[in-house]
Write a structure and sequence with these properties.
Number of strands: 0
Strand content: under 5%
Distance between the termini: 46 Å
Radius of gyration: 20 Å
Largest sheet: none
Shape: elongated
Length: 220
C-alpha cells in the first residue's frame, strides 16, 4: 500500500480493479477464441498492457485461469440464485442446463478450464464451485418435490449432464445443436419408477480426489 494522503487510496484501488477487469475480459475473449493454449502475450495485447503487467497480477497462466473461473462461477451462481427466486414453469434444473450451454458457446476456454480437475484444486475455484453446487442442489430438490425430475437424480448428475449437452457446442458444430440434446436429456429426467444404476459422486468424494491431486498422488 502507498503511504501518504489517505484520500488517494480509493482511486488507486478503483484503478487497480478496472485494470484487473480489463485483463480478465481480454483473457476471456482470447481463451474463448483460441482455447487455453492461447499466449499470454496476446492477452496482454488485447488488454492494452505490457506482458509484465499480466505476470505481476497473475504469476502463472493457471492463476489467470483460476481468476476467470471464479468470476464466471460467481455469475452462474447469481443467475441460478435468481432462478430459485422465480423458477420457470419447467423447473430450475433445465433452465440451469440451458444457461451452462449458452456460456459454453460464449466462453469455450472457460469450459475447458472448469472441466479440468486441476482448476478445482485451486482453493478460490473450489469455494466458488461449492457455492454453485449449493444452489444447484436446491434446484434439484425443488424440482424433485414438484415432480419435474426423477427422484434419484442429484446435483452432480445435473452438472455431468450439463457438460455432456454443452459438448454439442464444440467448434465446427452448430451452436444451436445443444437445444436438441437438452431436449433428449429432459426426456430422460422425467419422473419414473425405474431406478438409475449406481450412485452419483458425492461432494466428499470430489474433495478427497482433489486432496489427492494436490498432494500429487493419483486418484483411485
Amino acid at each position: 500500500m502507498i503511504r501518504g494522503v489517505t484520500t488517494q487510496t480509493r482511486p488507486l484501488r478503483a484503478d487497480a480493479e478496472r485494470n484487473r477487469k480489463r485483463l480478465l475480459d481480454a483473457a476471456v475473449e482470447v481463451f474463448a477464441e483460441q482455447g487455453l493454449e492461447a499466449s499470454t502475450a496476446e492477452i496482454a495485447r488485447r488488454a492494452g498492457v505490457g506482458q509484465g503487467t499480466v505476470f505481476r497480477r497473475f504469476p502463472t497462466k493457471d492463476d489467470l485461469v483460476a481468476a476467470i473461473v471464479v468470476d464466471r462461477l460467481g455469475e452462474i451462481t447469481e443467475t441460478a440464485s435468481e432462478l430459485l427466486a422465480d423458477p420457470p414453469r419447467d423447473g430450475g434444473v433445465l433452465a440451469f442446463m440451458a444457461e451452462l450451454a449458452r456460456i459454453h458457446v460464449r466462453d469455450r476456454g472457460l469450459i475447458e478450464a472448469v472441466n479440468g480437475t486441476k482448476a478445482l484444486a485451486d482453493p478460490a475455484v473450489h469455494d466458488a464451485h461449492g457455492a454453485l453446487m449449493d444452489v444447484l442442489e436446491q434446484h434439484v430438490k425443488a424440482d424433485r418435490e414438484a415432480g419435474l425430475v426423477r427422484a434419484d437424480i442429484g446435483a452432480f448428475d445435473v452438472m455431468a449432464l450439463s457438460k455432456a449437452v454443452a459438448s454439442a457446442c464444440e467448434p465446427g458444430i452448430a451452436t444451436a445443436s445443444w437445444k436438441r440434446y437438452l431436449a433428449v436429456v429432459a426426456a430422460g429426467l422425467q419422473p419414473t419408477d425405474e431406478k438409475l444404476p449406481g450412485r452419483a459422486p458425492t461432494r466428499a468424494q470430489l474433495d478427497r480426489a482433489l486432496a489427492e491431486l494436490s498432494a500429487g498422488s493419483p486418484s483411485s
